[in-house]
Specification:
With about 180 residues, this protein is mostly helical. Helix content is about 80%, strand content about 0%. The chain has helices spanning about 5-25, 30-55, 60-75, 80-100, 105-145, 155-180. The longest helix is centred in the last third of the chain and has 39 residues, at about 105-145. The protein is globular and about 45 Å long.
């Protein structure tokens, strides 16, 4: 359980949700995808806040995210892509967890599988790339300013949430641009 959020944290969280929903409304999505995206934004933000405050991504949150994602994938006829997204997200982060000897938590692995259901395999691949890029940029800034040491840890869930969100609203445009380059 996250517990009580101070007023400042509640205001920041509300502003982030408004910005996320505004960004979602600017994306080229149909009505069902907008509703689905609104629910996805709320779930991503909740998981990011929990991980930021506690350093944990709870199994219960991952199960809600995965369960709702599977229902949405079934409604939209995207079950195969959803399962591939979950498998890819879990496999990549589990491999990195193994290589880093626990530097990435199992909650992050499960979280990547859960949002992979919502994004499909291409969206999940983009989300993970964006997550690592965002995390690395912030870590470098914090290291450079002396606010983070080499042995300190950053919660990765907020970066995973940001990458998943950005992939959801701009993934199709990204892949279309990528195909043009090929």
């Amino acid at each position: 359980m996250v517990g009580y959020l101070p007023l400042r944290a509640r205001i920041i969280t509300a502003l982030l949700l408004v910005l996320m929903l505004f960004g979602l409304s600017m994306a080229d999505l149909d009505h069902l995808e907008l509703v689905r995206g609104g629910l996805f934004c709320v779930l991503l933000l909740v998981m990011a806040v929990i991980d930021f405050r506690t350093g944990l991504l709870p199994d219960k949150g991952n199960l809600y995210l995965a369960g709702l994602g599977l229902m949405m994938a079934g409604v939209m006829g995207e079950a195969q892509d959803a399962l591939l997204g979950a498998l890819l997200g879990a496999a990549l982060l589990f491999a990195l967890r193994t290589l880093s000897r626990g530097g990435i938590g199992l909650g992050d692995v499960k979280y990547a599988a859960a949002f992979g259901i919502w994004l499909g395999w291409q969206g999940t691949l983009l989300a993970l790339a964006l997550s690592f890029a965002l995390g690395a940029c912030l870590a470098l800034v914090l290291l450079g300013r002396g606010r983070l040491g080499r042995r300190d840890r950053l919660a990765f869930g907020p970066f995973l949430s940001a990458g998943a969100y950005l992939s959801y609203i701009g993934g199709a445009a990204f892949w279309s641009a990528y195909e043009v380059l090929l």
